[in-house]
TrEMBL record:
Spans annotated as Disordered: 152-178
TM helices/strands, residue ranges: none
InterPro entries named in the record: OstA-like_N (IPR005653)
Residue stretches in coiled coil: none
Listed name of the protein: OstA-like family protein
Residue ranges constituting the Organic solvent tolerance-like N-terminal domain according to the UniProt record: 83-129
Listed Low complexity bias regions: 161-172
Cited Pfam families: LptD_N
């Protein structure tokens, strides 16, 4: 067998070994899936992942490319990222692990702490915690934000609470002598 074919067969076996568990379960915890800062030569066992900081991606189909560090999820994509309080749905999502970004496309809806954004393509820059949304042709991006109303809290702070019982500070008449 030629060395090039043997190398390709080895890479194919490695990709199948990586993708088979996700194909069966349909779930990949994508955060740190491809961490470029971790050397392949390290022999220490990987640290246990805290479920609260993991990003969970569910979809009909998922592919991972070890050469590029890109994870692609297609079909009914659902993302849950509890550490940032983000939930998202889309037709497709691509996680670019080396660049620290996620690109969602196809009827994207993202919910974060009550605020939401809807568009055709939304890019999430993980390090910056920033969303960049683009609309479908001839449409607009829609966002709904929960904005705290500082002016109402200062108005309410000056108002004393309602007390149905009268509060007499000084008696109206002198107490009877005994």
């Amino acid at each position: 067998m030629y060395p090039a074919k043997l190398l390709n067969l080895t890479i194919l076996r490695l990709l199948i070994a990586l993708l088979l568990p996700s194909a069966i379960g349909g779930v990949i915890v994508a955060e740190n899936f491809f961490n470029p800062s971790v050397s392949k030569a390290q022999s220490a066992p990987p640290a246990k992942q805290d479920p609260a900081t993991a990003m969970t991606v569910r979809s009909d189909i998922q592919e991972a490319d070890a050469n590029t560090g890109i994870v692609t999820a297609r079909g009914n994509v659902q993302i849950n990222y509890p550490a940032r309080n983000i939930q998202a749905t889309a037709a497709q999502a691509q996680y670019f692990s080396r660049e620290g970004r996620i690109v969602l496309s196809g009827d994207v809806y993202i919910l974060q702490e009550g605020s939401s954004i809807r568009g055709e393509t939304v890019t999430y820059l993980i390090e910056e915690g920033r969303f960049v949304a683009l609309p479908a042709g001839g449409q607009q991006v829609e966002s709904i934000y929960i904005v705290p109303d500082d002016s109402s809290s200062t108005k309410n702070a000056a108002v004393e609470p309602f007390n149905p019982k009268p509060a007499f500070k000084n008696p109206f008449s002198a107490p009877p002598a005994r």
